[in-house]
Amino acid sequence: MATELHETIFMAKQERHKNLFLNYKNLNIFPVELLKDEGLQFLERLYMKRNSLTTLPDNLAQKLPNLIELYLHSNNLVIIPEAIGNLARLQSLDLSNNALQVLCPEIGRLRSLRHLRLSNNQLKCLPPEIGDLQDLETLDVSMNQLTSLPDRLHRCLSLQNLTADHNLLSHVPRQLCWLHRLNQLSMAANRLTFLPLDLGRSREMQFVFVDNNVDLKGLPSYLYNKVIGCSGCGLSAQALEGGLGEMLGEELSEALVGLPAEVKVVGSETEHVVPLEELAMRTLHRIYHRRPTELSLLPPITLPKSLRDLLQFPLGHCHRCSQAMFTIIYPKLFPLRDTALAGVHRRTTVSFVAYCCSSHCLRTFDLQG
């Protein structure tokens, strides 16, 4: 095997191969032949799947500076060296099916990266620096132990496909709704109780899979005309604490389990007065919403950071008139069993929920209108 490996690498150097296949070679360490002398300066794609590697060399980028794709699926990698960030041309990195418990922040220096696969590892968190990958199109972090996603993930402006199935996620960051190229979101088999009000508002978003989140009983009505997966959702008996059950009805209150803490008022058709704080936030938003996302120009009054963040990323937009909402919602329930999708989604008890900005929009909203 060693002789065959040596000959393969020797031939690749002699003939200046751009692709090198070292899959299924039973490698325990990274081949030193790849790192000798000047390395393989011309190599663009390196395949090392199904080996037993535990780490990567620190001088990988120095010896293989032109790597575009690196496939390390199904090894025993425990840690990735900080030097990984020096692979300036890398566009695709597959680290799935390894034993990674942490991902170094230097991953955020791979500014050319378009595809990052980290599924089936032991990751409990992701570095915020992932948000620096503005060319990233595909991110797969399924089958890990994640309890949250990075707040800066919304900066991955090119992201099209996000897969986070089989983790421990309890919520979806509402900032993800600002990823206007995101086409597919898959968060099946997590611990979701609530989805962002604006999820599905983007025309580009077409596929949402949240199957087997047993505590999830409400889907934003924006998802009604999308391809959705919700099998196994809403099967628990969890209910919303407080008096909402009596005020709104048991079914609607269950659909609102996990409501964001920013929601201070849940309105109804009989409530016609919008609170002053909500009106103030809406006014400020109309003035500043066309400013850069960092809100570099402050309002003429000092706002707490929590309200500044809310001004930048509202709770959502009215499902009827698109008015931004900040502290109050007017929800309207449409049980899936009563819609045209009932025959498609049978093993679920979820409902669509329209979130409106006023009692007028609540009364006049039509799911199929």
Automatic annotation (TrEMBL):
Residues 105-189 form the Disease resistance R13L4/SHOC-2-like LRR domain. Keywords: Leucine-rich repeat, Repeat. The keyword ATP-binding does not apply. The keyword Transmembrane helix does not apply. One of its GO terms (cellular component) is cytoplasm. PANTHER family: LEUCINE-RICH REPEAT-CONTAINING PROTEIN 28, PTHR48051. This is Leucine rich repeat containing 28. It comes from Pundamilia nyererei.
